[in-house]
Structures are given as C-alpha cells and as structure tokens.
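User: Sulfate reduction electron transfer complex DsrMKJOP subunit DsrP. Structure?
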Amino acid sequence: MFTVFISLVKDSLQAILHGSKKYHLWMAFLTFIMLIGMYCYTIQLEHGLSVTGMTDRVSWGLYISNFTFLVGVAAAAVILVMPTYVLKDIDFKQAVLIGEGLAVAALIMCLAFVVADMGGPSVLWHMLPGIGVFNFPDSMLTWDVIALNGYLFINISIPFYILFRHYQGKDALSKVYVPGALLSVLWAVGIHLVTAFLYQGLQARPFWNNALLGPRFLASAFAAGPALIILVLALIRYSSSFRIEDKTLKKIGIVVTVAAQINLIMLVSELFKEFYAPTHHSESAYYLFFGLHGKKALLPWIWTAISMNVIATLLLTFHKLRNNFKILYFACSLLFIAIWIEKGFGLIVPGFIPGPYGKIAEYTPTGIEIGVTLGIWALGAFVFTILAKTAIKIELGQLRYKKETVSKE
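Assistant: Predicted structure:
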C-alpha cells in the first residue's frame, strides 16, 4: 500500500510539472500573484495590522469578508456530493471530484484569511486546545474552527480514497465512502450555519442579530458556490479532454436558479423588516443602502451587487435563456460577483456602523490588504489547479499504477 502511495505521489508530481504552454503561463501568473501577496504579508508582519484599513471601530474588513464568502463556496460541494454518492445520479459523477477539489481550495483560503486577519501565524497557539484559550463549547469561534478543519479533512479523505482506488484500476467501495459522503452533507450545512451564528449571536450588533441570517447564508452559498462550479467545469470542458455532459451543467444551473431566487426573496424580507417600520437599530441598513450622515462609501458596491443579483436571477429563471450556455456562464459570473460583494462588504462592514456612541468610521481596504487578498486567492487557484489536473488524469486513465515497473525497481 505504501509503495502504491509513493508511486501516486511521483506520478502526480510528473503530471503537475508537465503541461501545455497555457498551463505553464497560468501557473507562472499565479506564482507571481502569490509572491506579491507574500511581500505584502511580510509588511503586515513587520508593522502589524496598522497597515490595513481596519481600526478599533471597524475591526473586520476585507479578510473576514472573503473568509465568510469562501465558507459558502466550500459548502457548495455538497450540491454535487449528495446526488452522486447518495442518490447515485450519474450525471454528476464526472463533476463531483472537481467540486470537492474546489471545496478543498476554498477551505485552505478560508484558513489563510483567518491567519491574515489575526495578524500572523504566531498567535495561532491561542486556538490550540490545552495550550491556548480554546473555550469549548461556549465559544462559537471554537465551533467554527472545528467545523472548518473537520470539513477540510472529509473533503480531502473521500476524493483521495476514490482516486487512490482508481489509480490502481479498482472501483471505490461504496461502503467505505458513502458514510463519509453522508457526513459531509450534514457537515457542509453545519460549517455555514456555525459561521452565520458567529455574527448572529452578537446582540450588540443588530445588523447581524437577525434570525434570517443563517438560512440566507445557506441560500447565497448554494447560489454562488455552484455558479463557480459551473464556470470551472466550463473551463475544464473546453481546455481538456475531460468530458462534462451538457445535462450536468444544466442540472447544476437549476440548483443555482432556485438558490438565487430564494436568496432574493430573503433579501426583500430583510429590506421590509429594516425599512417598513425602522428603529434606531436600522441605522446600519440605512448606511449600507442609502448612506448615513453624508457617509456613502458602500453605496456603489451594494447597489451594483443588487443590480447584478437581480439581472442574473432573471436570466437564470427563464428556461430557454438558462439552457443557452453563453447566457448561463454570464449569469453565473454576475451572480458570483454580486454575492461576493453582498456577503463581503455588504455584510461585514455595516455591522460596525454606527459605533456604540453613534460615530461613523468608514472602512476602505489598503493596498497591503488587497495584495494579501489577491495572493490568497492565487494560492487557492494554484491548489485547485494541481488537484484538478491530477484528478482528471487519474479519471481519464492517464495515471495508473505500474506494478511491473515497481517490481523491477
């Protein structure tokens, strides 16, 4: 077994290091962006979080915005896991490993954004059980750490087992991976609800202290995540010989459509609650959607997001438009960007405004924050490219364990 594993590692490295000119240019580009991110991060390590746009008034910014959004992207893998492993829907079979690879990349980015937001890796010991202040089970942050790392382990172990069996030319045993798949379905819902509860449980922040926040997190996750999966599958479909059926994309498109519609309904419900009978607790929402006391930094962002959200949902709602792949890809791109804005700046920053004494301190990310953020996104794309390239080669039969070669050696 160990010999097979070593052989898999060697063959995977060979597959990763060799590819077309476009592949090498893509990897070089991602490496360049990661180096920029690392440079910006060294500046942050040297000078602290003072080089970011965050202050004691707005203590969460671009890093936590991306973390919150990417938790939803990671959870969206369940959209492919459930029908493939549990319901035996063969239309999703070719796409499920790609979706789980995307979940792994998203979770790695989530953890990287948390480290960046904490200032540096040297403070991570505070989260270690028995050494730091883990505070289990009272702390929702502790629950989030357990949920994210557990989901990362599940999304690594199940695909690895399946690919390891396929690498040997064997079928994966359902009795081994189906229990894990069922667990991942429940865990995917859990990681996003726990993340929502982090905000929802803060009574002093009325913008977040909303019973609808958890369900809306799930709706937006199952819209943006599968939308990204569709775009990634489209790229793989047109850049490799890996076969992705039309009906697979169409089925995922239906999931995106329903989730986007539910997300819009929940948005309307929140707007009604905030503005029909406004109280002083509605000031955060007023700041976000209309500005407050002349402060309007988020207005262009949120109205752009809502416009894109509505346009994308309308395009997806009509069956004929959704089945046109060019329109589908365009709508998914709009939806992904819209939810990134809405679930990022549109959720995190307004929660801090106005402050406890009514003061408005607006937040604008600095170049350092943007550089670190781009570097982490490049890291995620780099990891996903490596995972997808290896998985595709194994699934196509181009990577196989060679017993004869190993025995001679």
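The longest helix spans residues 246-275. Confidence is low (pLDDT under 50) at residues 405-409.
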